[in-house]
Specification:
1 helix, eight-stranded antiparallel β-barrel, single chain, 67% strand, 171 residues
Length: 171
């Protein structure tokens, strides 16, 4: 199933730009304020302040765009670092020339985990909701990622990450 998903993302990435009105590609990075939510997570755990860095594409269709990304993201809580390779695919609704709202699914593969627990789940699905401002080739994003699957197998603990990003479109 993962191979099929990656094939679809690649096909969309190559086919859509040729028919799109606007195509942008750039890099982004920023800070994460991450935690785990759920019945198995105690209030005594502190969240983790981490980072994220990755590539972003924007396929514009007038006031609407599709924005696929590939982002390395440091998440988790204190003493439980869970890093992901995230692939958000967002619908972007543009208005007021520089402002847009973003929403869509995010798929994550566990890239690195340093935890006392040996059973980190290798795949994460989140719902992403955010806003961005673009100034020429520069952009700033605010986003909240709400985990829909457990980060640790058989434990009710889902990712919750607030992200602040800045980036630059090369073209």
């Amino acid at each position: 199933m993962m191979k099929l998903f990656m094939f679809i993302v690649i096909v969309i990435g190559f086919v859509c730009p040729s028919q799109a009105q606007d195509f942008k590609f750039g890099l982004k990075g920023g800070v994460n304020f991450a935690t785990l939510n759920g019945d198995a997570v105690f209030d005594s755990f502190d969240g983790r302040t981490g980072y994220h860095v990755g590539a972003v594409a924007q396929i514009g269709l007038g006031g609407f765009a599709i924005q696929p990304e590939i982002v390395y993201s440091a998440q988790g809580i204190e003493d439980t670092d869970i890093d992901y390779l995230n692939i958000p695919i967002l619908a972007k609704f543009k208005f007021a020339k520089i402002l847009s709202l973003e929403a869509g699914p995010q798929f994550g593969l566990t890239a690195n985990g340093s935890s006392d627990l040996d059973d980190l789940d290798s795949f994460d699905i989140s719902a992403a909701l955010g806003a961005s401002v673009e100034f020429s080739k520069f952009f700033v994003q605010l986003r909240y990622n709400l985990g829909l699957t457990d980060a640790i197998e058989n434990i009710d603990a889902k990712n919750a990450v607030f992200q602040v990003s800045a980036g630059y479109y090369f073209f």
